[in-house]
Amino acid sequence: MAQHTAQPTVTTPELPDRLPIGALAPWAVFFGVLMLILLYFVGAEQGATAVVSGEEVHEWVHDARHLLGFPCH
Ligand SMILES: [Zn+2]
To answer: Where are the domains of the chain?
Structure first.
């Protein structure tokens, strides 16, 4: 009586040896600028440096200001 056991066939995808930094750099710059803009609106969009007049932006990011420890009120 022959026993046959199924062998799982696992194929690993070919991974590149190195990450292509040239392809990642524009995305890193894009998300870095996006994060700086978000950080500006959360941390400094108020008072004399306000880009948008009124309190709407401040009210939208108010909880984030307290969460991140920016001085508020
Ligand atoms: Zn506050």
So the answer is: 38-73
Tell me the per-residue pLDDT of 15-45, one tens digit each, with 9 for 90 and over. 777 878 888 999 999 999 999 998 888 888 7
Q: Decide if pLDDT at 2 tops 70.
A: no
- Predicted local distance difference test score (pLDDT) of residue 20: 82
What is the whole-number distance in angstroms between the Cα of residue 39 and the centre of ligand 1? 16
Question: 39-48: which pairs have CB atoms within 8 A and are 24 or more residues apart?
Answer: 42/68, 42/70, 43/68, 43/70
Q: Residue 64 Cα, ligand 1 centroid: separation in angstroms?
A: 9
Query: In 3-state terms, the chain is what percent helix, strand and coil (to 5)?
Result: 50, 0, 50
